[in-house]
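If you are new to this repository, start here. Below is one unmodified record pulled from the training split, so you can see the exact layout before writing a loader.
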Amino acid sequence: MQIKLTYDELQAYAAKRFGRQIALGYVNETTVNASVRVSVFGFSKFVSVDFKVEGIKGPLLSLSYSGGLGIELVIGPALSFMKRLMPEKTGFIRESRGNGVDIDLCGMEQTAKMLEYVEIKDISFNENGVIVDAGLK
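And here is the target side for that same chain:
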């Protein structure tokens, strides 16, 4: 089976759940770009990061990220800060090797129940959104 989520749906969810406007865009079949407006000292700038699906094993989704040296040096400390500030919203995210992030899909209430019945086999992207290939357990 395929589950399709549009970028608009995911952006609306992120705005509701995290209170931030995040823009998502297609890069290639395994990579999506996420950008957010950041304001510092009255200046506003879009910060952009590419997330690549490295693989999925059971409920663990492995991603790598890239966005230039400045961005890559900020993401690790930012994740650590967010985990301390909002542990209930970020407990399912773990830093991994290099520029990697592992997401425990069982750690999110929205996906945990689904994973009792469905096994995710692959996640890919197209111009419209995310495609999740899955099968019933």
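Two things worth knowing about this chain: The chain has a mean pLDDT of 88. The first strand starts at residue 2 and ends at 6.
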